[in-house]
Amino acid sequence: AATGRALRWASGRAPARGLRASPRARTAMPSWVIDRYGSNEVLRFTREMMFPIIHFPNEVIIKVHAASLNPIDLSMRSGYGATALNMKRDPLKLKTGETEFPLTLGRDVSGVVMECGLGVSYFKPGDEVWAAIPPWKQGTLSEFVVASGNEVSFKPKCLSHTEAAALPYVGLTAWSALNQVGGLNQSNCSGKRVLILGASGGVGTFAVQLMKAWDAHVTAVCSHDASTLVKKLGADDVIDYKSGDLEEQLKTLPLFDFILDNVGGSTEKWALDLLKKWSGATYVTLVTPFLINMDKLGVADGMLQTGVTVGSKTLKHLLKGVHYRWAFFMPSGPSLDEIAELVDSGKIQPVIDEVFSFSEVPKAFLKLEGGHARGKTVINVTSRQ
């Protein structure tokens, strides 16, 4: 993907240019923000959010056409991860007395490049792009957002902005777990038995499709009312976790080469017993105590506790013949390039639960808060009033 970026630059796709400083009629924009942590009442609409500014040569400003919500937005609204995220926002504590507020939530964006920094040669104003903005940056529930060029990718040509906004964050989260942490790729998945726990949510629906695109055998766990959707996405076996003891149901199946756990909790206590021993089989969970530890214990003690926890669990399971791993969302334009190719080839499609207008953001949060989503909750930002 990185080579593709270089080739596109060399072919004149987006010639180098200087820092743009186009005149603006205003310095503020519409945005949904929070001024404190809490439940849904902390969401506030404003037309006076500061317009994003390019601070670094590799940044671009994107006009947001569509965004989407993820569980992390609910968590961040309530203050989850604030200690770690604020350290990332201001590691040297230079902004004494300032806070992260007003804070804009939203990680996914599909839109059009409006302005580019001096070091950006891969994109130009007018390009249709998509991206997942890291949680320590201002989010996408806004008219414009600034992103690093290496976080951005060209939007799949076959998708509308509304469709494209459903994929970046969940796609990169699944990509991190399966490819970068789990070591799976197109050349080594054929015939592998993969179990996906929590298969009907955003990450799960993407993971099912990616594993089928890479020719794995997929067993998906979800509720009965989501089974039709998950089968349509290509799952070979679908297990209803409500129809009986899930552990016992899974024990009747052949052992697995890989498990992706989107659920956490008690599943970790027995799921690793479903892996093939001494074969390189791997369990990867997306439910980790990393940010919770830092919120509760502070940065230093939280990181120490996290290191002790993951180290002890890794060693414990390694002695039993299986690999234990944690995975996290990682922003990556090159990975989105690869995902876009899979989308344009028809191997991955967005799964959208419901679409809301920009004026309905609080309603969209309540929808997500209700749980049991079948895919993503998308916000049409260009439909704002």
UniProtKB/TrEMBL annotation:
What are the UniProt keywords, alphabetically? Acetylation, Membrane, Mitochondrion, Mitochondrion outer membrane, NADP, Neurogenesis, Nucleotide-binding, Oxidoreductase, Transit peptide, Ubiquinone biosynthesis
The record's subcellular location field reads: Mitochondrion matrix; Mitochondrion outer membrane
Pfam families with a match to the protein in the record: ADH_N, ADH_zinc_N_2
Range of residues in the leader sequence: none
Q: Membrane spanning segments where?
A: none
Pathway where it operates = Cofactor biosynthesis; ubiquinone biosynthesis
**InterPro entries, alphabetized:** ADH-like_N (IPR013154), ER (IPR020843), GroES-like_sf (IPR011032), NAD(P)-bd_dom_sf (IPR036291), Quin_OxRdtase/zeta-crystal_CS (IPR002364), RTN4IP1 (IPR037397), YIM1/Zinc_Alcohol_DH_Fams (IPR050700)
Which gene underlies this protein?
Rtn4ip1
Question: Catalytic activity annotated for this protein?
Answer: a 3-demethylubiquinone + NADPH + 2 H(+) = a 3-demethylubiquinol + NADP(+); a 3-demethylubiquinone + NADH + 2 H(+) = a 3-demethylubiquinol + NAD(+); 3-demethylubiquinone-10 + NADPH + 2 H(+) = 3-demethylubiquinol-10 + NADP(+); 3-demethylubiquinone-10 + NADH + 2 H(+) = 3-demethylubiquinol-10 + NAD(+)
Q: Does the keyword NADP apply?
A: yes
- Primary localization: mitochondrion
GO CC terms in record: mitochondrial matrix; mitochondrial outer membrane
Q: What is this protein called?
A: NAD(P)H oxidoreductase RTN4IP1, mitochondrial
Q: Which GO terms describe its molecular function?
A: nucleotide binding; oxidoreductase activity; zinc ion binding
Q: Where is the Enoyl reductase (ER) domain?
A: 38-379
